[in-house]
Amino acid sequence: MPFGEDATCELEASFPETDIAPISIDKSKGVILGDETTGMSINLGIYCTNSTVERELALNLDLGIHAVANVTWDNFVYWLELSEVKCLSAVATSPTELNYHNW
What we know:
By secondary structure, the chain is mainly β. The chain has strands at residues 8-14, 23-26, 30-33, 40-49, 56-74, 77-93.
């Protein structure tokens, strides 16, 4: 169902359990999220509602994410730098009819 101009949406993320360690640390690179070939498994659910429709799942994304995070801090102030960011093997499903555009 199209949600229209008064739609509000929420994002829920979950990390399915896998046999592959999702996070590793490399002294020269930093914190590595996911493997470069398969990524760290993540499930993103986008839930939408409007004045006539109760909150419902609009879109579900299952994908793998790979990134290298370099975190530094000083006096309780933190900085995060992400590099080599990749989204791998994304599968999108939707129980509702969306106006989909393949860009």
